[in-house]
Every structure is written in C-alpha cells, then in structure tokens.
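Let us practice reading a record.
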Amino acid sequence: MQLLLLTLVSFIVLTSEAAPEPPRRRTTVSIVKDQFYINGQPTFRGRTWNGYRIEGLLPNSRMVQGIFDDQNPETRAQWAYPDTKVWNPDRNTDEFVAAMPTWKQHGLLAITLNLQGGSPQGYSKEQPWHNSFFNADGSYHPYYMRRLVRILDKADELGMVVILGYFYFGQDERLKDEAAVINAVDNITGELLEKGYQNVLVEINNECNIRYDHAILQPDRIHELIRRVKAKKLRGRRLLVSTSYGGGTIPKENVVREADFLLLHGNGVSDPNKIKEMVQQTRAVAGYRPMPIVFNEDDHFDFDKPANNFVAATSVYASWGFFDYRMKDEGFDEGYQSIPVNWQISSPRKKGFFEKVKEITGVSF
C-alpha cells in the first residue's frame, strides 16, 4: 500500500513538472473586427486626429535585430561597435530593452522582431552572415531564446505588442528542408504558448514573395503555415497570425482567407496616395472581412510634411510601421536595422517618426 501511494505521488509530481501552468502575463492583444484591443480595450480608446479615427490602430516600428547574432566567423567582425571594436549580442539586447520604455512613452505600441533578423545593411543581395534562431533541423538555439524572452517579457511589462517574424529570406536556407521548417514553426509556436505570452502577433515570414528557398514559405503555400499556427492551441488559447509581402504587393486570396490580420509593406511606394490605394485594394480581395490592416515596414519618411505614408495609411484606417536603416555614409546613430544599432531615439529621422507617433496618438509624458 505504501509503495502504491509513493508511486501515485511520484506520478503526480512528474505530471505537474511536465505541464506547468504558464506564467501570469500582463498584456493580451486581441482583435475585434478591424480593431486591435489590448487587455480588453481598443487601443487609444476614443482618440481621433485631424478627423481620422485612431482608436484600434497599432503604430509600430521595425526593430527586427533585437536578438541578432552572427554565427559566421568570417563576417562577424563587421558588426563591431565603434567604441569597443567588437560585436556583442548581449549588449545589443541589453540596449534594446533599455530603450523600450522611451518608445512606449511616445505612443509606440508595437515592434516587429524577426527570429532570422533582416538585412543588417538595410538592403543586400547576398547574405553570407548566419543569423538564425533555428538550427538546421528546426530546433532552436537557447542563447537566442534567452534574448528573445528578455524582449517579450519587457514588452509584456510595458503593455506593448511584438509582431514576431519566424523566417527571413536569405536565412531560411539555414533550415535543411521543409520538414525542418514545419518543425521550427511547431517548436517556437509551442514555446510561446507554454511561456504564456499573449502579446505576440505572428508574422510567419517577412515578404513571402521574395527569394525563399522552401516552397512552403512561398506565396502559393504560405497559408499552410498560417493554418498550422492557428491550429496549435494550449488551454484553449492560440496565437494570432499572418504573413507579409514585398513593398507595394497586395495580399493574395489564400492568405486573406486564413490570416487574422493583414500585413502590407510600403517600400518602393513613394506616393502617399498609392498607400491609400493599397489599403483599398486589399479590402477588395476575395475573402476579406473586417480585420486590421497593418503596414509593418515602410522606408518613406517626410514626417515634417502634411502628406506622407504614415498619414496616408492613418487616413484610411490602417496602422503604419517605420523601417529605418543606415544609409550610405551615415554613422552609428542612424538606422534601426543596421548592425550595430543605437536603439535610442538618436537621429533626426528617428526623432521625426517618434514625434509624429506622439502627435497622432495624443500620448503625453
């Protein structure tokens, strides 16, 4: 009898250890028709600006290099900090996390991260560096995970949303085959659910129509992975999910029918009127129903002018996201995508964006 009781106790303990309750979280993002809600309330409740509805929008910035590292010893040295002359991935994440409260104070509610980063040169044809959260078989590096958790935890604490991209073209080939891609999706989605994060919006891959090696990451099949994330649930909860396309591209019907929200990119779209047209065309795609439309990448600025892409998107009730990289002959203080990054609001371009966010959202501090 005593042996039986001990066996039962051991079973209960092992079962409890195998399936612990996820940590209690502070921030939950949800969608009601075409509005984003945080903790059960629409964002910027009741807010209008210049006659435009702001309530329910999600202003964001592309900060994809928050967990960047380079596993290629031949390219790693080129990301050295100007003061120390060495690259340090922990410093990068430390400084990212330290800057997040300032971004939030200006009204920024969301940041886009990517588990395989983005081009640390802004735009690049070749990508010899090796920056991937995932191993070749779809498992993941614990060092990357530790840095990711730090950012997700801080965002949760601040009431911010993370648009988390899983894959980036130029790095997706680090996974050996389609089975590894599927394994990677299952692994990270499961981890996010197990860790209890409710402030994450999934972007399967950045610009699915640009140079992906694996067919399942390309436009005709990307909806399969959207479905896969939607199907993975823990205690009745799942993650909201979509994907994005290259600049100026309208989402395809297979994605519109499956996604929880739609991601557009304004790269290459210099006329603000074209931004409005993109939103209108997206709403006309077969399968569209009321859902949020979000630009989470646009490298056009003109924040001091009455007409710019940010204002244009806002005028047709679409959220807008800033994409800033270090341009030719610019220094360390410029750009949020070019490694190494100064994550503070350290340049006129960054200041212009954040001042515009503050103006549109009405946030004061």
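A brief commentary: The chain has nine helices and 13 strands.
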